[in-house]
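quick one
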Amino acid sequence: MDKHSYSIALIPGDGIGNEVTAAAFEVAAKAAKDAGATLVSTEYDWGTDYYFNHGAMMPANAIETLRGHDAILLGAVGHPNVPDNVTLNGLLLPIRRRFDQFANVRPAILFRGVSSPLKGLHAGDIDMLVVRENTEGEYAQIGGFVHETHPQEVAIQTAVFTRHGVERIIRFAFELAKRRNKKNLVTSITKSNAQGFSMVLWDRVFESVAAEFPEINTESLLVDAAAMNFVRRPQTFDVVVASNLFGDILSDISAIVTGSIGLAASANIDPTRRFPSMFEPVHGSAPDIAGKGIANPLAAIVSAAMMLDHLGLHTAAQKMDAAIEGVLAEEKVRTPDLGGTSSTSEVAAAVLARV
Ligand code: NAD
Ligand code: IPM
Ligand code: MN
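structure w/ 3-isopropylmalic acid:
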């Protein structure tokens, strides 16, 4: 029998995370309800305020608590008064790692009614996915300080690339390109001209996985050239697969060429479904606009639509996507990042009304 009720952990977190997460959940809950499913939310007040009160970003049993949910919807983490490595390594990054959410999928679509900062591009011209390895690579958190605080201090930070980790993310990218059936292209990003071990392993694995997918075309780019080509010819990309750090950087470029980081969504997926997956906007807590009520909620709302899709509620997800596209195409209700004057709640209400 199909499942009808889904338990969602809401972690609004910091800054504008608090302004966009509830709205995203509300839209998703309505779309799900119309499709005969119920989303039940449990909100967790974890984040930097929690840290100020408890000395930790989340409680010691947080992972066990989250494990019982079907999915996690997260806002953003980061506070101007606390070092980012403390906040992010205390909340967001451990969830990605502990739940083995190894595929971070970040779509970039140029929607109707939105203009790209690049000239000559029209709606639909950009339609790509950045698939970012999410559990190892440059984010492995292996290292330390020697001679801490002294002039001879040394910091070591080691990137870790396992064949298992590289192979599964590359295979995921090929399967996604096949399922999408759009340009049938997977672009691999490395820096194997300079990094002669990790990225050489990546290139070798890419070549061997590619051989399993003769129907998918391939392209290999060095990350510096890729950064340029994300600006020069974004319309040529389909699925792009990259390591943790390269995928992080490139997905901010793919976000801005489609108009605003306020539209960029992401899904941290454990494709094996052993653990809950986590859905969150690409953007951060945006301290410069936090509390003003002008953050674009669409990145969070698109992320919530990706959550419904992951939960198998495909019709509801499509309904959300159509509502978002409708609001953008109408070019009336939009936040300042898209050149409008509407508030976060006005945009959320406009989407809700169309669901
Ligand atoms: P940011 O994404 O928070 O902001 C970058 C710029 O984009 C800012 O000018 C901001 O106002 C704008 N912006 C971001 N989201 C927007 C939205 N929804 N609507 C309109 N404008 C938006 O990146 P940052 O300034 O580098 O980082 C701020 C904090 O967030 C830092 O502490 C950082 O570590 C953290 N961060 C967290 C995440 C996350 O939780 N996933 C992601 C990125 C950064
Ligand atoms: C993102 C963010 C995070 C990352 C930071 C906040 C640790 O930039 O989700 O893109 O680098 O993964
Ligand atoms: Mn980022």
